[in-house]
């Protein structure tokens, strides 16, 4: 199999340097505990997205054109790209289905353990017969312990995988994928080990009850899947051997198996790889929300720095196939991951009458988004260093402990027992199996509203909040609002969960912010909708579920500062096209409010916090509009002349830490001025000097002979100068011609530009600012 060219970055990652940042003499305890002095890998390399221009590439193009068989004018190159795109969408959808199943299984198992402990026999540890309050307290304490143990095992395993095996898998991963698509080569970002750690960590964080969601990690998972599929030839097949996680196996066939994968050699360039990663991003977010169009727009608006019709086509195919795969693999999957029920259409008069209350809802949603961003950035100051392994693990465990304390304490102290609605029972059979709702210490057909909010699945909580509509629209006497939650419980949950999700952002465990942002906005909107419904007459058609939906969209806009993609994701994810005007207005108002208070969104601030990833903003800051290069440049600029000796180049490269250097070139006007001074200084150059004053006029009667004579003398002087300064008079025989070729050509400028009495200086150093 032909080897990859130098500009391909992925082969370098096939044999990477050791991941450990420690020296071989570092002790075992230091490797386990971590250290503040461990150097971090810096991202300083860039990807080569420019077209290749070299002899090897041209030779390959000729071979492809002349030697490869074609079918109706097409080669396997295009087919291979479509195969990678199709496989990316299907594989991402399959992983999303597996992730959902694993999270659901673990969460239901945890709920059975906790509720079984709460329903257990009284401990009678106090010795007071019939003391039910003491028995309930003992049961609650044991339930909290089991909650901590169950979740602690999950989060410790997930965080250890990140800290010791795949550090690039921490967090949501969206910002680093954005940086990669912008041209930054980030080591280990798309490795199979990162994919495994991301999947396991996301399952653990969501199932344990941490304030995190799977949507952001699904973007990273889709990108990893696309990268693994596009480089399957490079990773698995080498010299007739099949590489797998179990080792190397000799293939039965005698010929090199790499020949059958030869077509994949043409799609491993950085340019093609960028297209596949963009498609993986679209497939991941589309699988999370069940929104293929929203996935395309999210990839365009947030992730990709380069966009074309071809990229859009690949993103659409991958997103559609991922959503379709989930529909096939998940029995009873609804169209839209957070689809609601019980809401009725709003008429124009309803929108107009409720507009003031809706604007208050949107403004508050923007304030919540800005408050989250502010608290998240403030907490960066007290975060443990990324190389302090034990401290990073303890941070995650501490958050889990805090989640358990808040959930059980507030459920015991402020929870209210409310009758379980009919649609919360499985198959709507009252008294059967609960589909949603935590009983805690309430009756068999009741639920504790605070416990349900804190201890239930976040995904199901969002769906139930969005579904808080009218019970009946036929009989006015029975029309009312589904009072599944009390306003006090919703207000308490909004404030506490906002603080918990702020603490969770930036921890060393995979987890996203989409779902926590949605549930915070939904709880606030539902509370505000219940209050407005109690104040207003019934014919106003106030639906708390609609207020929850619009506020959730507003909080997303305040946190992420996106507009178009968020609108489409929420419309497709909820199947709420009838509420599109309100969703658009919510995003616009909340985004404006949050931008006025806190300028940066999550992704921009995360990229700046990384510090070693280079990515320009969409718009420059206003203070840069009036500044020039002289105002911001540093003095003592290190650079090279147009003609430089090797010792000088090696000295500069070894004594500096940056990789870019300016080349100082003398401008043509300065050369002309030197020529005029030289002509006036020599009596034998009068004719030529007079001719030069006329610009493009002829040299005069004796100008040609004088010019030729002086040119010959000038070449001899240049050769002597080159011998003295650069060691070889034949290094650049063109002399000033070579310099002027770099400066823009020699047309209209004589070949000599200095006085005979002064040594030749190839460039003029710039003046410091």
Characterize the main sheet.
Answer: 3 strands, antiparallel
Average pLDDT, all residues: 76
- Fraction of residues in H or I helices: 55-70%
Structural class: mainly alpha
- By DSSP (H or I, 4+ residues per run), the number of helices equals 29
Placed side by side, the strands forming the largest sheet appear as 1-2-3
> In angstroms, what separates the terminal alpha carbons?
54 Å
Radius of gyration, rounded? 34 Å
Weakly predicted, low-confidence segments = 1-20, 123-131, 234-263, 472-482, 684-703, 726-769
Estimated share of beta-strand residues: under 5%
**Number of beta strands:** 7
- The coarse overall form would be elongated
Please give a handful of descriptors for the protein shown.
two-stranded antiparallel ribbon, single chain, 29 helices, 769 residues, 3-stranded antiparallel sheet, 7 strands, disordered C terminus, disordered N terminus, 3% strand, mainly alpha
Kindly describe this structure.
By secondary structure, the protein is mostly helical. The chain has a three-stranded antiparallel sheet with strand order 1-2-3. The protein has a two-stranded antiparallel ribbon with strand order 4-5. A two-stranded parallel sheet has the order 6-7. Helix 4 packs antiparallel against helix 5, helix 18 packs antiparallel against helix 19 and helix 21 packs across helix 22. The longest helix has 43 residues. The chain is elongated, with a radius of gyration of 34 Å.
């Amino acid at each position: 199999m032909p080897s990859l060219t130098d500009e391909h970055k992925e082969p370098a990652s096939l044999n990477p340097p050791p991941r450990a940042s420690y020296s071989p003499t570092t002790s075992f305890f230091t490797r386990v505990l971590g250290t503040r002095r461990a150097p971090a890998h810096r991202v300083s390399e860039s990807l080569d997205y420019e077209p290749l221009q070299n002899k090897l590439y041209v030779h390959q193009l000729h071979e492809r054109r002349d030697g490869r068989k074609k079918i109706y004018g097409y080669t396997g190159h295009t087919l291979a790209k479509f195969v990678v795109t199709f496989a990316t969408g299907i594989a991402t959808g399959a992983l999303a289905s597996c992730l959902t199943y694993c999270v659901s299984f673990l969460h239901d198992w945890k709920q059975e353990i906790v509720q079984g402990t709460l329903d257990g026999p009284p401990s009678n540890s106090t010795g007071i017969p019939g003391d039910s309050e003491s028995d309930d307290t003992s049961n609650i304490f044991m339930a909290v312990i089991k909650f901590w143990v169950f979740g602690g095992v999950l989060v410790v395993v997930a965080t250890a995988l990140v800290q010791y095996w795949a550090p690039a898998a921490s967090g949501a991963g969206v910002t680093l994928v954005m940086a990669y698509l912008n041209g930054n080569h980030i080591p280990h970002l798309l490795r199979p080990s990162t994919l495994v750690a991301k999947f396991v960590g996301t399952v653990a964080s969501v199932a344990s009850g941490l304030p995190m969601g799977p949507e952001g990690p699904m973007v990273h998972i889709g990108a990893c899947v696309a990268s693994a599929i596009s480089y399957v030839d490079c990773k698995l097949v080498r010299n007739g051997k099949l590489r797998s996680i179990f080792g190397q196996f000799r293939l039965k066939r005698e010929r090199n198996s790499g020949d059958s994968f030869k077509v994949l050699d043409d799609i491993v360039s950085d340019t093609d790889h960028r297209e596949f990663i963009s498609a993986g991003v679209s497939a991941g977010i589309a699988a999370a929300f069940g929104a293929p169009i929203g996935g395309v727009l999210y990839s365009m608006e947030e992730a990709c720095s380069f966009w074309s019709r071809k990229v859009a086509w690949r993103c659409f195919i991958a997103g559609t196939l991922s959503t379709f795969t989930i529909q096939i693999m998940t029995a009873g999957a609804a169209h839209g991951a957070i689809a609601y029920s019980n809401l009725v259409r709003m008429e124009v008069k309803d929108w107009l009458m409720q507009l003031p209350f809706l604007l208050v809802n949107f403004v508050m949603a923007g304030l919540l988004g800005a408050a989250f961003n502010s608290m998240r950035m403030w907490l960066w100051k007290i975060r443990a260093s990324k190389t302090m392994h034990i401290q990073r693990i303890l941070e995650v465990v501490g958050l889990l402990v805090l989640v358990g304390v808040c959930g059980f304490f507030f459920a015991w102290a402020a929870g209210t027992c409310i009758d379980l609605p009919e649609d919360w029972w499985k198959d709507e059979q009252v008294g059967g199996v609960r589909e949603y709702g935590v009983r805690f210490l309430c009756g068999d057909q009741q639920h504790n509203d605070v416990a349900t909010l804190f201890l239930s699945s976040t995904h199901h909580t969002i769906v139930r909040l969005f579904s808080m509509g009218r019970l009946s629209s036929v009989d006015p006497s029975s029309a009312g609002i589904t009072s599944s939650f009390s306003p006090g419980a919703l207000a308490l949950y909004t404030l506490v969960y906002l603080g918990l999700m702020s603490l969770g952002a930036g921890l060393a465990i995979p987890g996203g912010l989409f779902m926590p942002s949605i549930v915070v906005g939904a709880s606030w909107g539902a509370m505000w909708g219940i209050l407005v419904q109690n104040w207003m007459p019934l014919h106003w058609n106030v639906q708390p579920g609609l207020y929850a939906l619009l506020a959730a969209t507003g909080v997303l806009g305040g946190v992420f500062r996106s507009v178009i993609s968020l609108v489409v994701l929420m419309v497709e994810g909820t199947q709420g096209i009838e509420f599109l005007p309100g969703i658009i207005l919510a995003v616009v108002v909340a985004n404006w409010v949050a931008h006025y208070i806190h300028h940066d969104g999550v992704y921009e601030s995360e990229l700046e916090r990384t510090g070693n990833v280079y990515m320009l903003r969409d718009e420059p800051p206003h203070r840069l509009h009036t500044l020039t290069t002289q105002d911001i440049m540093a003095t003592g600029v290190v650079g090279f002349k147009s003609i430089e000796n090797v010792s000088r180049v090696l000295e500069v490269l070894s004594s500096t830490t940056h990789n870019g250097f300016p080349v100082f070139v003398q401008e043509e006007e300065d050369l002309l001025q030197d020529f005029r001074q030289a002509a006036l200084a020599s009596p034998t150059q009068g004719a030529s000097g007079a001719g030069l004053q006329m610009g493009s006029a002829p040299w005069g009667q004796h100008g040609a002979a004088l010019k030729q004579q002086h040119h010959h003398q000038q070449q001899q002087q240049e050769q002597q100068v080159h011998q003295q300064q650069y060691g070889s008079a034949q290094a650049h025989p063109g002399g000033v011609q070579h310099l002027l070729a770099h400066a823009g050509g020699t047309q209209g400028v004589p070949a000599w530009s200095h006085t005979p009495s002064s040594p030749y200086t190839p460039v003029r150093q710039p003046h410091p600012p």
